[in-house]
Write a structure and sequence with these properties.
alpha+beta, three-stranded antiparallel sheet, 1 helix
């Protein structure tokens, strides 16, 4: 799963409804006091949209271009 823990909660752990397609380190935007990476909607925003039933995001591969981590909704 994720390599680092942070103060922010990440919903990709503990049977959250996401499947890891490509392992990678935790996205840097989940670190405390870090904003969004260039061209990214924000990892947690994308995960939240997928898990809330947003029809676009729930079928998308959610990918971090910085770490390679890629997940999809199960």
């Amino acid at each position: 799963m994720m390599e680092k823990s942070t103060d922010k909660k990440i919903k990709t752990e503990n049977n959250s409804g996401l499947k890891i397609i490509q392992p990678g380190a935790q996205p840097p935007c989940l670190q405390p006091n870090v904003g969004f990476c260039r061209g990214c909607f924000g990892w947690q925003n994308m995960v939240d949209a997928a898990l809330s039933g947003d029809s676009v995001w729930e079928t998308a591969l959610i990918h971090c271009s910085e770490t390679g981590l890629t997940v999809t909704k199960t």
